[in-house]
Description:
Order of helices and strands: EEEHHH
Distance between the termini: 13 Å
Amino acid sequence: xxxxxxxxxxxxxxxxxxxxxxxxxxxxxxxxxxxxxxxxxxxxxxxxxxxxxxxxxxxxxxxxxxxxxxxxxxxxxxx
Length: 79
């Protein structure tokens, strides 16, 4: 699934789930090193666990962040 982000430097997130687990995450644009790290950390996790850890994280004064956008994307995938 490709999720178009809102309010962040990254513009989209490509997420693949397999057998109820996160198989891969790739961000387009944004802080490459940080987003690569987040992507690797969530691989193998249940989407619900990643959502619980990432949802609500803010980036400075913005009401959202790349991790928060990942949580929102995962929420749309598991509904």
